[in-house]
Design goal:
The chain is of the alpha/beta class. It has one domain: Oxidized Rhodanese, domain 1, CATH 3.40.250. Helices cover 37% and strands 14% of the residues. It has six helices and five strands, in the order αβαβαβαβαβα. The chain is globular, with a radius of gyration of 15 Å. 29% of the residues are buried. Pfam families: Rhodanese. GO terms for molecular function: thiosulfate-cyanide sulfurtransferase activity.
């Protein structure tokens, strides 16, 4: 018999959404290209290859997030040390809610995540870039 489930993903996302700023699509669209904002795509590389990403977004694999944020980690990425607003997004906003909460819990501020994820972004006519390779 397996271990008893204590929390569901849905409850964790709901908790994260209570603690993290959620950006609507139109508000986020207005932030694209701003020097003081970094969009962070936490989706899998195959998802990015298939659908593209928000222009200028940084790809941060969900499994490396904590390591890339922590300045004491050998995997730290300098862009997380910049004085910017970090807007996390994924396909539908569950992974980004958890990612933004994790980042916030680690002391990265200010952070937010995109309501509805890239799916909602595309549906609302948000610009998407595709990278070669």
């Amino acid at each position: 018999m397996g271990a008893k489930q204590i929390k569901t993903v849905e409850s964790m996302v709901a908790e994260a959404n209570k603690e993290v700023r959620i950006l609507g699509i139109e508000e986020a669209k207005a932030m694209v290209g701003n020097d003081d904002v970094t969009f962070v795509d936490v989706r899998d590389v195959r998802e990015i290859a298939k659908t593209g990403r928000i222009p200028g977004a940084r790809h941060v694999p969900r499994g490396m997030l904590e390591f890339w944020i922590d300045p004491a980690s050998p995997y730290f990425k300098d862009f997380f040390g910049e004085d910017k607003t970090f807007v996390f997004y994924c396909a539908a906003s569950w992974r980004s809610a958890l990612s933004a909460k994790t980042a916030q819990d680690m002391g990265l501020t200010p952070v937010a995540h995109l309501e509805g994820g890239l799916g909602a972004w595309i549906k609302a006519g948000g610009e998407v870039e595709k990278k070669d390779g």
